[in-house]
Design goal:
Length: 503
């Protein structure tokens, strides 16, 4: 009995978060006529901005660069709260006709490439019905982010089972959780911790940020005065790119100074921090990291809210190691005890490439850690597949827009020249390779072996440089030494011989 043909799409996008919605909008505008769908594992769109519900959730970069290049950010705050960002993403999806292309509760588990058919067969599991769905597509576009949505990282803390209070991970914040009047300890020193502490300090009895080692923390105005001025003087579509490029230049300057003159940047950050803390505060113990700026991401605090909470007495910082959890809180390596009613483990994320789906090519399983990245968005030996991986030193969406534009350029180029397959190539044998992400953050180092590699130079090098990527991805050649195009479909494999009958 013949099997029913699978639904076929020109492009299949995985993930309906900030990147996936943007990818769909770019396809509608730049590759009109292409059929596509977005498969989203969860029951709602928005990705990170729908998942995270902890107090004070906000952007850690300005919205003039975290926003899409085709939809100006019009709200007052440059550092925006999570609900505002979620509204912006969903509004974009509705305005551009992308919302109707999203298929919710479809978790992609496997993608298999057939060289003979020059297409992917994608398998997804539906959470709402329990059924397995299979589709085919010519091009697969992964917009899944880089971390596990269903599981945050929590170290194994000795004695945690003895603690009589509540232990919460920010990635799984309980709905309606009441911490009012309670003693809270937030374990961590990254972006999530510096967001949580001042946000909870207003209602909690006291909030303590317990860190094993400090991070670099910089203050940024919640509103951008230059942006406000330009938006008063110019139309939004004129002011937006000017502010966008101004902020790109500023963040690039901070990054370059951090890398080229780390001692200077250390002094500048320390002076800014010292000005905002009480006189005599032990800055070196609590806000002087052992690494150089931008070896890990800088933590940005709008209007210095973390320092304001410390000055006001509602929050404090303790730098020490945890010896064990106790019934009443935490015993530290120094012998000090921190009593707590609530302990928040802001201890990080678990990395996950392309949502954890399995990938196979002509029946051969692919381990992405053995591949080399091409232009920071494709993988050697893996045809017709791209992913969005945002910048580590700038807003995620700056890179997201460029990748989506490039994918559209690539698809249009293939159509114009009769190509069906675009396969990135590895650099020459023996070429030096390095980790795909050049950060020393714990969440990166824990998963470094799972990530692809990058080569010694372009197009295999992942540059953390927006201006350079604009030239390469928006205007650069599509055919170069790092990619092979093919018009022909590979011949079908010979049929397997029938097994001999056993007498």
């Amino acid at each position: 009995m013949p099997t029913e043909p699978l639904e076929h799409l020109d492009v299949l996008i995985i993930g309906a978060g900030l990147s996936g919605i943007g990818a769909g909008c770019h396809l509608m505008a730049d590759s009109p006529g292409k059929s596509f769908a977005i498969l989203e594992a969860r029951a709602s769109s928005g990705g990170t901005w729908d998942l995270f519900q902890y107090p004070g959730i906000r952007s850690d970069s300005d919205m003039f660069t975290l926003g899409y290049n085709f939809k100006p950010w019009t709200e007052a705050k440059a550092i925006a709260d999570g609900p505002s960002i979620l509204r912006y993403i969903r509004e974009t999806a509705r305005e551009h006709g992308v919302e109707e292309r999203i298929r919710y509760e479809h978790r992609v588990v496997r993608a298999e490439w057939s060289s003979h058919e020059a297409r992917w067969t994608v398998t997804a599991e539906r959470a709402d019905t329990g059924e397995t769905v299979r589709l085919t597509c010519d091009f697969l576009f992964g917009c899944t982010g880089y971390y596990r949505y269903d599981e945050g990282y929590t170290p194994s803390f000795p004695g945690a089972e003895r603690f009589a209070g509540e232990i919460v991970h920010p990635q799984h914040w309980p709905e309606g959780f009441d911490y009012g009047g309670k003693r809270v300890v937030v374990i961590g020193s990254g972006a999530t911790a510096v967001t949580l502490v001042p946000s909870m300090a207003d209602r909690a009895e006291h909030v303590t940020m317990l860190q094993r080692s400090p991070s670099y923390v910089m203050t940024l105005p919640a509103r951008d005065p230059i942006a406000d001025l330009l938006r008063r003087l110019l139309p939004a579509k004129t002011a937006y790119p000017i502010v966008r490029w101004k902020n790109v230049a500023l963040s690039s300057l901070v990054f370059q100074v951090s890398r080229r003159a780390p001692r200077l940047m250390k002094r500048l950050i320390r002076k800014q921090v010292q000005r905002q803390l009480p006189e005599g505060y032990d800055v070196d113990t609590h806000f002087k990291p052992t690494y150089d700026p931008w070896d890990q991401r800088l933590c940005l605090v709008p209007n210095g809210d973390l320092f304001r909470a410390i000055r006001g007495g509602g929050a404090s910082v303790v730098t020490d190691r945890i010896e064990t959890f106790t019934e009443r809180g935490l015993k530290l390596a120094s012998g000090r005890e921190l009593e707590a009613d609530v302990i928040v483990t802001a201890t990080g994320l678990n990395l996950l490439v392309v949502g954890g789906m399995e990938i196979a090519i002509d029946g051969r399983e692919i381990d992405l850690s053995e591949t080399v990245g091409y232009k920071g968005m494709m993988f050697s030996g893996v045809p017709n597949l791209a992913i969005t991986l945002g910048y580590t030193n700038a807003s995620w969406t700056l890179k997201g827009d460029l990748v989506a534009e490039y994918v559209c350029r690539l698809i249009n180029h293939m159509d114009a020249h009769g190509f069906r397959v675009a396969t990135p190539l590895a650099p020459a044998p023996g070429a030096r390779t390095e980790p795909f992400i050049d950060l020393q953050s714990g969440y990166v180092l824990r998963s470094i072996e799972q990530l692809p590699k990058q080569g010694p130079h372009a197009p295999w090098r992942l540059h953390q440089n927006y201006a350079r990527d604009v030239v390469m991805m928006r205007r650069g050649p599509l055919e170069d030494e790092g990619i092979a195009f093919s018009a022909a479909v590979a011949p079908a494999p010979p049929p397997r011989p029938e097994p001999l009958a056993v007498a």
